[in-house]
# Entry
Amino acid sequence: MSVALESLATCFQGLIPAQLFTCSLDGVPNAAYLSHVDYVDSTHVALSFQFFNKSRRNIAENPHALVLVPDPDSGQIWRLRLRFVRSETTGPLFERMRLRIEAIASYCGLKGIFKLRAADVYEVRSVEAVEQDHGDGQYAGLLSRDDRRPVDPVFTMHALQNLALRLHDAESLEGLLDSILVALDESFGFKHSMILMPTEVDGELVTIATRGYPENGVGSESRHGEGLAGLVAEARKPIRISGLMRGILYALAMHHQSSDPANVIIGRKIPLPGLASPESQLGIPLLVRGELVGVLCLESEVPYRFHEEDKQSIEVLGNFVAIAIQNMQLHERSAAETTGEAASQSDEAGARVDAPLAGRHDVTYYQADECVLVDGEYLIRSLPARILWKLLTMHRDTGRTEFTNRELRLDKSLNLPEWKDNLESRLLLLRRRLEQKCPTIRITPSGRGRFVLELCRDVALSTRP
# Structure
């Protein structure tokens, strides 16, 4: 092999489609486009087997193939002469390729249609540069000069020390989550990020913290197996996507989502935050002893921003971040349990709010959907909605403004899970949604395990079936 396969790393990111050429036993050629050629090791690559039935039949008769892979940096095309070795339908290689295809398909509403049937492994017999007649070749200029500039290494000791210091100094779950995303931005250069956490509903994630997006998207939801975050949560493995086609796929996904009647019923859906034209995405599961604590998603407008080394380093960082999040959740719950009893006993009636501003809010609780609307606009649903409705009705009936986490945890009407209720993260989500959509209703922490309900405007409560 005249050129080391490892030196063609950018060719295997899927930014520009590759071309596959095969030939039947009787000499009839066939050409097909490949969205992705996967690097296996120094002498092997893998091609996805999805729809190329003619190519597959040719390989069964004649195991030799030729693949052209363009280098998006230089426009140089490389010719790989291959020989079929085996087909894999299980294992790490198959899973890595399957997850990438499913993540992309999920964005354009085609999950379940584009399925990887097998990862076909080929031995690379030779690597040759294709001579080109016009400058840098037909693919030169597809990436801007800025896009082609190599990204400086980001996983420095200074960046790691900064992240560790922020984790150490965080005093609450809210502060911890924000500190993680600030460190990823300022120390590592990852400008667009979000953290999603599991809800009390099995197989559901909710966005709890974001950075770098005009609309922060806190409260947006994702199901396991849907989109990048959902696939990462389902597989509990990191997924990395690069390619110029991502912007098109994202637009298709938005069109599909907006045309789905299930997503527009009285506006009870918060869109996930995201770049309009993301070129690179990386999703990392946050795991502690096999338990999913959350999902960290990173985006960039720079093609192949997240290299293989980045994925591995972020995965290691994800382990530490997951432990920090779980420890903070346990710490806040323990603190709330020890301080909440005394607080609840000393606050039978609580203090009444100051004179409200002019006007009022109409707050409606929809029982069937367990969601709250304020002045006709969707605010939140499920457990955070039940908590807010409980607080508002108690304030209306008793005038109370101060509450404790412990009394909410003991309130059977809220239907908190008996094991691992994540009450603190639900309160954080509720507080952030109010700050974003209805700042005249506030839930303000007043100490460990206690908070104050502040109403700066009159509130009229009503229920609907």
About this structure: Residues 5 and 42 are 6 Å apart (CA to CA). The mean pLDDT is 82.
